[in-house]
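Quick one: ABC transporter permease from Nonomuraea montanisoli, structure tokens please.
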Amino acid sequence: MEQLVVRPGLRGLTGRFKGGGLRAAALVVIALLVLAAVLAPLMAPADPDAVDLSAALAGPGGDHLLGADASGRDLLSRVIYGARTGLLGPLGVVALSTVLGVAVGLSAAWHGGWVDAALSRSMELVFAFPGLLLAILVVAMYGPGQLGPVITLAVAYTPFVGRLVRGVARGEMGRPYIAAYRALGFGGLTICLRHLLPNIAPVILAQSTINFGYALLDLAGLAFLGLGVQPPTADWGAMINEGQSAVLQGALGPILVPGLAIVLSVIAFNIVGESLADHVSRR
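--- reply ---
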């Protein structure tokens, strides 16, 4: 089976954490993130944008369970609301890159020949350019925001899915059921979408889950640089950027709270993704 793409630094980290207990913990983290994103108005104890200078850089406790930032805004509320941008952006990246990657990978595997060669070289060309660098160039041309980086990262992530789909599909096409459908007169599009794609869907799901964590990290990095989601919108990367000045005053909460949210989220998605990959390979 074609190897899933896992960044070296994360492979070494998450490789130690694939036991049943930690896999369940990762699923719990993801479930809590989804609940926070969906139910943010109900879960947040305060308005995430409410400024209270009298509580600036307040420590944990009292009205601010996790403390407050330099503007007196409640960190817990902002982290909860930040789950919305933290999940919606990567969801857009993964959805678009998966659709494009499946289309490119299946086309290359089914047609072979010069089509396969051309699409494979195209994916290698995209691989040659770091996704973050492309996103920074797009922001430089069109201005900061989330839409541009999401589309750019989706294009950059497409080869991760496309090369995997191509490899798995080429192996699957040698199976008897593909030849049987061809003999019955089914067209290539019908065979690919109705019969081939469902059989390789678990592998695609595993890679897409891992990609979700990467996209979350990349988008948070862009927001930290001031190139993604803009203040006062609650976003984890932007919160770390805003909290830098607080460190000089001895307050670590404004960067530790969103930083921990990012780290836990990325590790959780990687653990689940690699667990899915292990399950598929055993099958």
